[in-house]
Amino acid sequence: MEEISGAEPSQEIAHRPSTQLARTAPLNKQIQHYRSINELDLRQTLWTGMPAGFALALAQTGELATGLLAIPLLGIAVVSGVKLLRRRTKSVQAGQAEYKSGDYTAIQMWAPFLPALGWLVAIPLDFLGFEALETPPLISGVFGGLLFGAGISFGAWGMWNQAFRIGKRRIKKITEKQSLDGVSESRMEAVEENGDILGALVTAGAVDGNELSVASLGKLMDWDNEEIPALQARANELQSSGVVKISGQGLYQKAKHWQVTITPDGIRNIAQLGHR
């Protein structure tokens, strides 16, 4: 077993996968690692979504020549999509127990109403007589492909990391005042000793009320069901130090159903540790 500095070998989970970082590795590295196995790869998603978008738009032009161009593009999208699916991301995301101010950007809030802008633009153009202008099929296919492809790609990619981005905004809101409330040496030591758990929770967006079950946490961390008691024990230690909060202990006997979230005090200690 790989030797872990600052911790006894007996404290490490047996048969830890070689791709898994040590529990005391820096939190940023933990987050990068868990995001790489939990989310869709943006480049691969673009290689799938953009050709699919262009194929769809070109096929809708009604022209044989542009329609034939859609065939190889569709083939590229299928091949890339198969590679994307074979990657088998963990797809673990925290549940959003409550909505808070700042969870979503202004663009996300207005996105459902964006299609109406097309009508607002089209009505005056029709009134001015521009509806009679014809757009070449290839140009309309290209512009339509850009819109469809970007929508498919970034829509799919965003679905897989939405919880992380919400958690990131909550972290920013908690730390923007640089308050030291709840910061202590013992809590920072707990953060440093449990970077793997906290990195996984941040990746899943389990921050400031958004909760992740112990079972899902174990899935993201590549821990077997037999190792859940060890994960439970470490989560309890983090709760005792005030870094995380566990709910559901009185409702469920099995620890895998308990819900975990990083507390605001935990976030401040994580931030303070990063300033060292």
From TrEMBL:
Keyword Membrane annotated: yes
TM region positions: 64-85, 106-125, 137-160
Keywords from the UniProt entry: Membrane, Transmembrane, Transmembrane helix
Descriptive protein name: Uncharacterized protein
Taxonomic classification: Bacteria, Bacillati, Actinomycetota, Actinomycetes, Mycobacteriales
